[in-house]
Structure formats: C-alpha cells, structure tokens
Amino acid sequence: MRTSRMRLKAPWRAPAAATLAAAALAAIDPAVAHAHFALLEPACYSEQSDLGDPQKSAPCGQADPGNPIEPTGEVTTYVQGQTIQLRIDETIFHPGHYRVSIAENPESLPPDPEVAPGATPCGSTVIEADPQLPLVADGLLVHTSAFTGEQTVEIKLPDDLTCENCTLQVSEFMSNHGINNPGGCFYHHCATVTILPREGEPTGAGGTGGAGGESGEGGAASSSVSSGGSGDGGSAASSGGSAGDGGAGASGDGGSAGADASDASSSGCGCRVGAAEDPTIATVAGLIALGLLRWRRRAVAARAGWRSTL
User: Fold this and answer.
1) Rounded to 10 degrees, what is the CA torsion of 124, 126, 129, 135?
2) d(CA 25, CA 28)
3) Distance of CA 238 to the CA centre of its chain
4) Beta pairing, strands 151-156 & 83-92
5) 15-196 in CATH: which number?
6) Which 3 state secondary structure label does DSSP give 200?
7) Please, what's the b/e burial string for 15-31 (b: 16 or more CB within 10 A of its CB; e: otherwise)?
C-alpha cells in the first residue's frame, strides 16, 4: 500500500481561532454549527485546510462556494480483498458516523441517504447493515461525544473488486445541526485509489479451469469497476464458477462449463482407455504353446523307451 501525508492548504488560517469560533457558535446554537473532518488515510485527492475544507458539497467537496479544490495527484494502491486503514481527524465535533463508498469515478458514487429530522433538521439516517457496492462500509465510528484525537478504523475491500484510478469516498453524517448549503447533513472527502488483482487472480472474462483442464469461457471473473462489470457470463458477486476444459469443476450461477477435451470420456476425465487387443491372436498363440508342450512330452517318452531297450 502506498499513501502520502496530508498537505494542508491555506496556511494563513488560524486553526485555534477557527476552532474556538466554531465551539462558541455550537454553544450558542447547535442547529447552525458545522462539523468538519480531515481525511488522513488514504491520501485525499485534494488539498485540505486546517479544518479539512473543502468538504461540504457531494460527492467530494468539489463545489464548495468560494473554496475550489486543488488536486494533489496522489494515488493510493491496494490489493483486491485487502483490509485497509481509514484514518480521519474530526476537527469540529457533532454526533454521527462515517461511511465509505468506491466507484469508477465521482459521478458514479451513490447519493447521500435520506435524513429524518429530529430536534434539528439533521436528526437521523439509516445505517446499512449489509452494504452493497458501491457502498463498502456504513456505520463506522459511531459517536455521541467528541473524539480525543485522530481515529483509525479498518475496512475490508471487496474480494471481487479491482479498479484503476477509481474514487474512494468517505462521507460523514452529522446529526444535531442545521442543513448545510451545499451538503445537507453530510461532509465529503475523496481519495484516488487503484485496487490491483491478487497474484494469480484472473482480470478479464473467463473463469478458473477445472482439474487438468483449461479455463472455461464465462467463469467467475472479478468484478472490475474500471470495466464497468464482471466478465462474460460471470457475476459481480463471484457467484458464477466454471468447469475447465475436461475439468472437474461445475458451472455456477451465470457461469458456463468449458468444452469437453478431445477424446475425453463421458465422465469428464481427460484420459482415455486404449482398445482391447484382438482375441484371435491370443488364441493362436495359446494353441501353438500347447502343441509344443505335447511334442516335448512325446519326445521325452520316446527317448526313455529307447534307453530301456539297450
């Protein structure tokens, strides 16, 4: 894995003054206070201020008024199915949680979920117990009191996901405050990541071969964000297996069994049994051997009779 340290933009800002001002505002009226966080790992795709700005506008803070993004050009590389670290610094507290999504580009990221109002317009939102791509994790770092420092949480990348220069989004839901414009009840950061296939894993159409066979067409290919889907006949959730040419594997949902190998038996074995020898040859050979044996016995008996007459 390759990351870089976060670079903060706008060094002229006074972090202490900004934090004190935000704290004072929250004490006066929490409904108009604003939470903030900085993305430390993976490397954020844009420069961040001491508070983590820009971060309001979905999906990546790219449209905050008067605060244009400054791309870092940083790319973090992971491996398919890897457990990675997410590290954030919540610079201004509000109760809430974090979620992570991955898509081919920012435009393909999911929208922020619906929010139900409570004592303030940002009351509560649903946490997905079984997240599905492009959502990777939800309900991370749920908290109702301020953190004491940087926070790190591990998330596992999908086993069937590979991509090149795709977008990993970290969004923060903050309750107990008013509606941001833009952003609503969420704050957003993005990172540019590349997810490489594991060593030996297929990267295109076609599945793994069965025992002794070649890979069949349309097997369980890895889902690639960069290509927009799974391989021919394979499923994005790797549910489509395949039997190789003459192999012993069975085709799964959406997969197709490979063509039978030439000269393969009906059982799927890649070997074949040779033809039996002609029985006529064996019969003739046996008769000849029997005749020679009888001739030898007669010769021995004749020799014994000749000696007895001497």
Assistant:
1) -110
2) 5
3) 10
4) antiparallel
5) 2.70.50
6) coil
7) eeebeeebeeebeeebe
Cβ atoms 100, 137 nearer than 8 A = yes
Pick the closest to residue 166 from 226, 207, 241 (CA basis).
Answer: 226
DSSP 198: P
φ/ψ of residue 161, rounded to 5: -115, 125
Q: Are residues 268 and 274 in contact, defined by beta-carbon separation less than 8 angstroms?
A: no
Residue 190 backbone phi and psi in degrees, to 5? -130, 155
Q: What is the pLDDT of residues 245-300, one digit of tens each?
A: 433 333 344 444 333 433 433 333 333 334 444 556 666 667 777 777 776 777 66
Torsion region of 60: left, alpha or beta (phi above 0 gives left; psi -120 to 50 gives alpha): alpha
- Could you state, in order of their start, the residue ranges of all structural domains in the chain? 15-196, 202-256
pLDDT by residue (tens digit) across 195-232?
A: 999 987 765 433 333 444 443 444 333 333 333 333 44
- Structural contact between residues 172 and 112, judged by C-beta atoms closer than 8 angstroms: no
Residue showing tokens 């010769």: 299
Q: Does pLDDT of 21 surpass 60?
A: no
**Residue 11, by phi and psi: left (phi above 0), alpha (psi -120 to 50) or beta?**
alpha
Q: Which helix (H) or strand (E) holds 94?
A: none
Q: Cα–chain-centroid distance for residue 201?
A: 11
Q: Which two tokens stand for residue 201?
A: 């894993």
- In 3D, which of 50, 16, 35 has the Cα closest to residue 144? 35
